[in-house]
Amino acid sequence: MCLGVPGRVVDVDGLTAIVDFWGIRRETRLDVIDEEVSPGDYILNHVGFAIRKIPAEEIEETLSLYELLLKEADEDIMAADVRGEIEASPGVGLGGAVDRTAPDADGKPRGGNG
What we know:
Distance between the termini: 35 Å
Structural class: alpha+beta
CATH class: Mainly Beta
CATH architecture: Roll
């Protein structure tokens, strides 16, 4: 089963966003999404790609459902899938800067000038 995970956009730099998933910040690609995304928006993430911008009127209900799932379903397959989605994205430091020492999605070193 494939599952998207909601997160709040913290920063946008071209086609890359830093997204907060319950206190874990991850780099998320914006190549697939067909709407402009700004800090404060919520997106649905699937394996490191924003696949949909969550409409403002759906954010509270969506987050509540995911929070309940993560809280009450430790052994549930869907909860494990949500945790896997969060962990699958490339690492980002909690200060918001991309961790250039973390491997990219292919497992290769990032390098670069941070």
